[in-house]
Amino acid sequence: MAATQGVRIEVAYRSENIVGEIPMWHPIEEMLYWVDTRKPCLQRLNRDGTVRIWSMPTNIGSYVFRAGGGIIAGLKTGFAAVDLDSGEVRHILDPEPEFPENRLNDGRCDRRGRYWVGSRNPGTTDKTGSLYRLDPDFTCHKMDSGFIVSNGMAFSPDDKTLIFGDSTAETFYRYDLDLDAGTISNRQVYLTTHNLPWRVDGATFDEEGYYWCALLGDWSVGRFDPMGRLDRIVRLPVSHPTMCNFGGPNLDVLYVTSGTVFLDEAERARQPLAGALFAIHGLGVRGVPEPLFGG
């Protein structure tokens, strides 16, 4: 694995998020957003170092930026449009009313402006979670099913691959992506974490086609090659990073969220930075711009 000389880790914001998630660099505003799924809220790190917070009515699992402004969010109650000027949250649809305990979890936008998001049931190990695609016309399509906790979603920079899987089942898949048709096929195991001290959480690709993900429970983020082999690891000052994603004007800073929900009182005392937002500099790689939802 590659060494980490020259890498510098800083606290971008000392939040105490219960479950920080989905750090995303807005490609037009050039500011960093992220969420606390449990608080629940959307947060934005302003240029002066302050943070603006938008409260959400229920758990928020993920979100995407809209081309016309605001966001589309994946909430416990389904998809919703959020006006960031007024704070208004407008319900769009619930893709699985037959599973009232389920909630939408990890999700991303593809480069045709469609929002892909997976669901989960936080109360059981039943495989009631599915993968959905919300199109710009707000039609919703089920793309796959049979997941406990949907996680690790990322689209490759060449738009030919989707990585997506199940953190509780400890298996992540590589799908062939037809970007024009909006379809996936040929699901194959990309990586598993059975008998390893960590689980894969939120993830992203760099521009070289390598997959970066938070290694939950292992104080680190990892970089995996296209075959699912661990290529590089970067240690952090918290045991439970939750997601990583590239940002900054040059997309060369890896932002990492973390959480406190996994820690008991003694562990919290030993990890005063748990729940903070981190920025990793000097990795020598860049990300790709976040696509905007077309609706």
Written account of the structure:
This protein is mainly β and 295 residues long. The protein is 2% helix and 50% strand. It contains 1 helix and 24 strands. It has one helix at residues 265-270; strands at 8-13, 20-25, 32-36, 41-45, 51-55, 60-65, 71-75, 78-82, 89-93, 103-109, 115-120, 129-134, 140-147, 150-155, 161-166, 171-178, 183-192, 199-205, 211-216, 220-224, 230-235, 241-247, 253-258, 277-281. Strands 1-24-23-22 form a 4-stranded antiparallel beta sheet, with no helix packed on it. Strand 2 and strand 3 form a beta hairpin. The longest helix is centred in the last third of the chain and has 6 residues, at 265-270. It is globular. The chain starts with 7 loop residues before the first strand and ends in a 14-residue tail after the last strand. 45% of the residues are buried.
Question: Sheet with the most strands?
Answer: 4 strands, antiparallel
Strand order of the largest sheet: 1-24-23-22
Number of helices: 1
C-alpha-based Rg, rounded:
17 Å
Mean pLDDT: 96
Shape: globular
Helix content: under 10%
Q: How much of the polypeptide forms β-strand, as a percent range? A: over 45%
SSE sequence, one letter per element: EEEEEEEEEEEEEEEEEEEEEEEHE
> What is the total tally of β strands?
24
Low-pLDDT residue intervals, each spanning 5 or more residues:
none
- Overall SS class: mainly beta
Cα separation of the termini: 42 Å
Features:
four-stranded antiparallel beta sheet, 295 residues, mainly beta
